[in-house]
Amino acid sequence: MIKLIGLPFDENSSFLRGPADAPAVIRAIWNDGASNDYAENLSEIKEHVIWEDAGNIDKTTQTTAAYFDQITSTIAAIVDKGDKPLCIGGDHSLTFPAIRGIATKYKQLHILHVDAHPDLYHNFEDNYFSHASPFARVMENKLAVSLTQVGIRTLNKHQKEQAELFGVKQFSPDAWTINDIQSLKGPLYISVDLDGLDPAYAPGVSHHEPGGLSVRALLHIIQSGKAEIVGADIVEYNPSRDVHHMTARVAYKIAKELMARMA
Ligand SMILES: [Mn+2]
What we know:
By secondary structure, the chain is α/β, with parallel strands linked by helices.
């Protein structure tokens, strides 16, 4: 069973707040009647059959470190039972505790990361847990054996050095091939930052970075992969920047297509 988990947290955002409101808005899209619940391969993504809503993990009075520990232990318990988490962020800092939970079971984890940004800063604006740093934390803690990034178009010298240090494979939005995707090994975790898409397709993000992937290209990447997906996240949706919930619907569609591959 796939477990949908909302992570309404955006305190590690470096530029704008807003992603904390994302889980509620994306959930509302699920049942608004504008779409059916089929993926494009004709799988019916039926609630209580394919997936269940496991609710939110809320940050209340606990520290961020304790909140991250709670995310890790919740996800560790899900994978321990043989279920698969699909996390709806929240900012991208949440991917680190999520993958830490996945890695309690999967010791040879591979990661596919879709994003405009490599998110490999060692320490961004004096916050080691910034949304600009989750993959530095993942790789230095050896939580994955490979990291492949697609959509990258904001590299600088420091992040290029970090990518080399951790052996990260990086593809700009037009440099990946279907063979690069199909040769990814499992168990695979997929992290989708919606700003990997071009802002024309997904305006509801904090960091508008022109020159990104089309929705169609991202669907092609998800649909044509072959490795077993053991967990995934969709992060950085910012409802305050969206237009008629268009980006929320992109998140919903990506979630359905991920579920079709995970089921
Ligand atoms: Mn990003």
